[in-house]
């Protein structure tokens, strides 16, 4: 998948959802420029070190940011108070956003977790 396919995916969304997810996407790209954009199971996201890393989507009544890790999510529980969280997922209002600083911290934590898992398995790229 390419960023062109993600562009097309986002373009098909209603304006409010598209704008919210485009802000999140921009923050993610800035935080991990080496990550590869992808669409997996119909959801846009990023791969890091060849592994699914984070993703995002819009639902009827909210947007979601998937950090794909309960470990990372739990380590930021104080900063995530006020957000609906569950199993590696953060939900936020369609016309809202997650603070860029928080997203960057979550992404850096996921990178560290991914790197550690790869090193542990002896498969660092």
Helix-strand layout with pairing:
Blueprint: H1 3-11, H2 15-31, E1 36-40, E2 43-48, E3 51-58, E4 63-66, H3 70-75, E5 84-86, E6 89-92, H4 100-121
Antiparallel strand pairs: 1-2, 2-3, 3-4, 4-6, 5-6
Structure description:
With 125 residues, the protein is α+β, with helices and mostly antiparallel strands. It has one domain (3-121): Aspartate Aminotransferase, domain 1. Helix content is 43%, strand content 24%. It has a six-stranded antiparallel β-sheet with strand order 1-2-3-4-6-5. The model has no long low-confidence stretch (mean pLDDT 92).
Descriptive terms for the model:
globular; alpha+beta; Aspartate Aminotransferase, domain 1; single chain; 125 residues; 6-stranded antiparallel sheet; 43% helix
Looking at the structure, the CATH topology is: Aspartate Aminotransferase, domain 1
The strands making up the biggest β-sheet line up spatially as 1-2-3-4-6-5
Number of helices: 4
In CATH's first tier, which class applies? Alpha Beta
Number of strands: 6
Structural class: alpha+beta
Oligomer: single chain
Q: Report the average pLDDT across residues.
A: 92
Task: Provide the domain count.
Answer: 1
Global outline: globular
The name of the CATH architecture is Alpha-Beta Complex
Evaluate the radius of gyration. 14 Å
Q: State the share of residues found in helices, binned by percent.
A: 40-55%
Indicate the low-confidence ranges by residue numbers.
Answer: none
Fraction of residues in β-strands: 15-25%
């Amino acid at each position: 998948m390419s960023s062109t396919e993600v562009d097309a995916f986002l373009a098909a969304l209603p304006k409010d959802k598209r704008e919210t997810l485009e802000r999140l996407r921009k923050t993610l790209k800035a935080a991990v420029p080496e990550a590869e954009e992808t669409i997996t199971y119909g959801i846009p996201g990023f791969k890091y070190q060849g592994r699914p890393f984070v993703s995002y989507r819009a639902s009827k009544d909210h947007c979601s940011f998937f950090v794909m890790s309960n470990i990372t999510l739990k380590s930021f529980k104080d900063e995530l108070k006020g957000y609906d969280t569950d199993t590696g997922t953060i939900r936020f209002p369609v016309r809202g956003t997650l603070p860029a600083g928080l997203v960057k911290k979550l992404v850096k934590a996921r990178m560290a977790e991914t790197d550690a898992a790869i090193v542990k398995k002896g498969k660092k790229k």
